[in-house]
Amino acid sequence: MTGFVELENFIGIHKNTESDEPYKKCELRNRTQLRYGTDTAYLLATANLYAMATFLSDRLGREYRYSEKDTVHRNLRISSKYYEASFNELYASYDTDRVRLRAGNQIYGWGTADVYNPTSYFNPFDMREYFFKDEDEQRLGVPSVSAMFFIGDFTLETVLMPVHVPMALAPSGNFWAIESKLGRQPVILEEGAALDAKPENMGAGARFAGSLMGVDVSLSAYHGPYKEPLLVPDGTRILPNKPLALAVKQQYHVLTMIGTDVSFKMDKFVLQAEAAYSPDKTGMVMQDTDDIRRIAFPFETRKSPYVSYSAGFNYFIPLGRLIEGHEGDTVFTAEWHQSLYLDRELADPLFTKIVSCRLEDSYFGGRLKVSLTAMFDTAKSGYLLWPQLTWDFQNGLSFSVTYAAIEHTGASAGRINENESAFYYLRDNDMVTWRVRYAYK
Q1: Is residue 235 very low, low, confident or very high in pLDDT (cuts 50, 70, 90)?
Q2: Please, which residues have CB within 8 angstroms of residue 227's CB and are 6 or more apart in sequence?
Q3: Nearest to 246 by CA among 184, 303, 201, 307
Q4: d(CA 399, CA 391)
């Protein structure tokens, strides 16, 4: 058994926030991983228990909600307004020298890219905090059955996902909700429903991976629901004392994808790339929304060929040559990601033409960890800057503080999702985060 307990706080500092309450999140979290059995057959469970600290004061995190109503999801994620329990890994495993069989909630680490993985087909994102969740929280486990076959230096993994699990997005009114503010019509993002549990909505895929002359490479294929929803304007809603609001529905569609990824080391660089192609991904036809009264709802959707790819590198900087006695690992990571429909009348995906980079270092025997993360929307003029400092007391206790600056520098052009960066919807969410964690074994 391993795990940790944690207290995490988000403090909003942007001058344009509608609320005077600075505490956007004050959360207690307990993560426990249990493994029971033998080397051959065992059960593994990773449980995350969350509680908003509103029981201490109604000022602490009242603008943050896990869900609008009490809900038990298909992957056993149990949500309410201020409490949640999730089990992203909860499976039985049988391992031998030739095969590994698993059944239950699983997370599949397909792909080689550091940020965006076009060939990671199965696990939807938990986007209720966008980029600010820990890496172990970013993907939701899916109920599935998998078999991995070991063939020399290669592996063949096959996966069957019998039911669809939708992405988690912040509900309307939440601090993290996708909304248009300050002069534009409000946007209401309505909750998305999972596809019906029918054979045609199952997900199935396979990945053949191995190493050839020092190059890690894989080929993969998938048919089933796409892990991200299509955000389609569906109509208008009347809100008290506000302009006419635009209601946006989350739609999920089935598609077919094929993909490949590659990774190899060259001196102090690790180069990696992956790409996926779909002949039948559903997209949304754009309309001019300058006059909301002339829009035809819902927006038209249709299928199109679709390409998504990421390429980047990790560079291990020999900082010890410049700073005498420097012992830490200094790593610079950079990645380019683009997704596009070949039918150019369809709206671009929300995240495309994104440059991501991160510089990481450590000092004082690994006690002080420093990182600077930056993301740039090169097409729609938005960016995120995210420095972080962590002090590890090396007795299980650690303390972290971060600052997030989110900007949308381009002019909003009156078209939903086409000329607005994803950062446009988060431009008032500048914040300071502090966290204290105690890890146990």
Answers
A1: confident
A2: 120, 121, 122, 123, 124, 125, 167
A3: 184
A4: 5
Neighbour count for residue 198 (Cβ, 10 Å):
9
- Would you put residue 267 in left (φ > 0), alpha (ψ -120 to 50) or beta? left
One-letter amino acid of 174? N
Q: How far is CA 253 from CA 105, 223, 224, 417, in A?
A: 22, 11, 8, 19
- Letter for the amino acid at 336? W
What token pair was written down for 29?
């979290």
Q: Is 39 exposed, middle or buried (0-12, 13-18, 19+ CB in 10 A)?
A: exposed
Per the document, the length of the chain is 441
Q: What is the CATH number of the domain that holds 18?
A: 2.40.160.10
Instruction: Report d(CA 110, CA 396) in Å as an integer.
Output: 31
Lookup result for tokens 């996708």: 178
CA atoms within 13 A on the CB side of 219: 1
The tens digit of pLDDT for each residue in 315-327 reads 999 887 777 778 7
CA-to-CA distance for 142 and 104, rounded, in angstroms? Answer: 8
Band of residue 182 on the pLDDT scale cut at 50, 70, 90: very low
Q: Amino acid identity of 198? A: K
Q: What is the span of the domain harbouring residue 7?
A: 2-440
**Both structure tokens of 422:** 């994803």
For residues 267 and 222, give the distance between their C-alpha atoms in angstroms, rounded to a whole number: 34
Please tell me the distance from the alpha carbon of residue 432 to that of residue 388, in angstroms, as a whole number. Answer: 10
pLDDT of residue 192: 77
Report the domain count for the chain: 1
- The Cβ of residue 7 has, within 10 Å, a number of other Cβ atoms equal to 14
pLDDT greater at residue 136 or residue 327? 136
Between CA 252 and CA 198 the distance in angstroms is 14
Question: For every residue of 118-176, which 3-state class applies, written as one string?
Answer: CCCCCCCEECCCCCCCCHHHCECCEEEEEEEEEECCEEEEEEEECCCCCCECCCCCCCC
What phi and psi values does residue 55 have, to the nearest 5 degrees?
-70, -15
Query: What sign for the dihedral angle of Cα 312, 205, 44, 46?
Result: positive
Q: Using CA atoms, how far apart are residues 229 and 214, in angstroms rounded to an integer?
A: 37
Q: Are 165 and 124 contacting, i.e. CB atoms less than 8 angstroms apart?
A: yes
Cβ atoms 102, 62 nearer than 8 A: no
